[in-house]
Amino acid sequence: ATFGGGILGRALGSLRGAAGLVRRFGVSRDLLAAISVQNIYANLCRLARRRGKPRLPSQPPDDYLPVLGQAFPGQEERLRRITAAYMRVHYGDQAVQAEELAALREDYRVLREDGGGV
């Protein structure tokens, strides 16, 4: 049974991902920042998909970066910062500090508004 098209599988994957973040960052502000960065990146990917530039399931974030550039022309520096922060927290153990998180949120806000609310 697929339970609604893989909803159960996606939920279990999310729980595994969250458990990995807790192991790496503990229950702290660093954990909340890491979750925020992952959410920013996931939302960015959703916006790009709506613009016809989806991320392939096996596509690493750094390989997807040029495609994001096609979805958001002229925003390469913002896209690079968000992608680099995502890779640090998702694949590594490097925390994002409050100032950087604030800048990433602003980058995402600009990208989101650039799409006319897409």
Lay out the secondary structure:
Layout: H1 3-25, H2 29-50, H3 61-71, H4 76-91, H5 98-114
Helix pairs in contact: 1-2, 2-4, 2-5, 3-4, 4-5
Describe this structure in words.
- The structure is a single chain.
- The longest helix is centred in the N-terminal third of the chain and has 23 residues.
- The mean pLDDT is 83.
- This protein has 118 residues and is mainly alpha-helical.
- Helices cover 75% and strands 0% of the residues.
- It is built from five helices and no strands.
- α1 packs antiparallel against α2 and α4 packs across α5.
Brief synopsis:
With 118 residues, the protein is an all-alpha fold. It has five helices and no strands. Helix 2 (29-50) crosses helix 4 (76-91), helix 2 packs parallel to helix 5 and helix 4 (76-91) crosses helix 5 (98-114).
- Tell me, briefly, the overall form: globular
Q: How much is the radius of gyration in Å?
A: 15 Å
Number of helices: 5
Poorly predicted segments: none
According to DSSP, the number of beta strands is: 0
